[in-house]
Amino acid sequence: MLSNACKYAIRAILYLAIHSDETTKIGVKKIAEELETPQPFLAKLLRQLTSNKLVSSTKGPGGGFFLDKNNKEKSIWDVICCIDGTHKFDKCFLGLSKCSDKNPCPVHSTVSPFKKKILNEFRDKTISKLVEEIEVEGTVISLKGFDLK
Amino acid sequence: MLSNACKYAIRAILYLAIHSDETTKIGVKKIAEELETPQPFLAKLLRQLTSNKLVSSTKGPGGGFFLDKNNKEKSIWDVICCIDGTHKFDKCFLGLSKCSDKNPCPVHSTVSPFKKKILNEFRDKTISKLVEEIEVEGTVISLKGFDLK
DNA sequence: CACAAAAAAGACAAAACGATCTTTTTTATT
DNA sequence: AATAAAAAAGATCGTTTTGTCTTTTTTGTG
Ligand code: FES
Ligand code: FES
């Protein structure tokens, strides 16, 4: 569904949403370690997010990445648009150029409701709202330190 | 979600399910034209499907691809397993190594139910059942000839 | 048998994606 | 001013995916 890049980006944003603010900035190195993602790759993604106003950053010693008030009002959907673009969600599951109720493919009726619902949730829920949920539900953005067998 | 290859394969199988049988075989050329897919690429995929018993074929003049009784009892899921493998459905939406209710990621609760539902439908519905539906509902596996603006 | 039609097989090319590395710019601290 | 820490920028590399091409094998037909 999403590219690796996009998954890293979303997790990084959530990490920043939880652990950073205007006065607590975090460097790529730390983020990459915590999320167990390739560091230079993540750096590039963070740049892209920063230039699209989804993440804030300051250079120099003590600098790093963080989310400000504005950034926290963005949504997962904004991140997806920024990194992957929307076409994956527009396209038909079987590769027809357009997914539409007008000329549905044979799996349209099973796939389409799902797509719409997820899309709405991703679009409507702000990062800060999502972080609230994370704190309540105890969900997880990294498996670092987990002992999976 | 699915690779291009897999989408082509599914559509090709559905095409064959509708238009072929033991006595009416169809060549790659025709199939590729009707589905508007790259011909040599599709040929390779059909070979793969054939060697996995999802499609039947005969060589020589008058030969071609077709679905026999057995082939029509397979499911979309079988095609996906054959071409893409299952890992895309096992993996977490945000890229955590395992998607599980045990250590859910922040979007697990919105994504997971749908994944399960779709997976079941793909697994349980045979190709022949699906073709029945296609005939009733008038869904479409190619946009060839459609005038989309 | 000779021929032609078709799939089977596999080598090869191009593009997208994933990831790394090096250099430059900015800036806080000494 | 010098230094060092950090992001910004961009060049580069490897792999996977996608797609093409050529050759071989099989087989029905005249
Ligand atoms: S038309 Fe294929 S998923 Fe909607
Ligand atoms: S754990 Fe992420 S989708 Fe299930």
Automatic annotation (TrEMBL), chains A, B:
<dbReference type="InterPro" id="IPR036388">
    <property type="entry name" value="WH-like_DNA-bd_sf"/>
</dbReference>
<dbReference type="Pfam" id="PF02082">
    <property type="entry name" value="Rrf2"/>
</dbReference>
<dbReference type="GO" id="GO:0003700">
    <property type="term" value="F:DNA-binding transcription factor activity"/>
</dbReference>
<dbReference type="InterPro" id="IPR036390">
    <property type="entry name" value="WH_DNA-bd_sf"/>
</dbReference>
<protein>
    <submittedName>
        <fullName>Rrf2 family transcriptional regulator</fullName>
    </submittedName>
</protein>
<dbReference type="GO" id="GO:0005829">
    <property type="term" value="C:cytosol"/>
</dbReference>
<dbReference type="InterPro" id="IPR000944">
    <property type="entry name" value="Tscrpt_reg_Rrf2"/>
</dbReference>
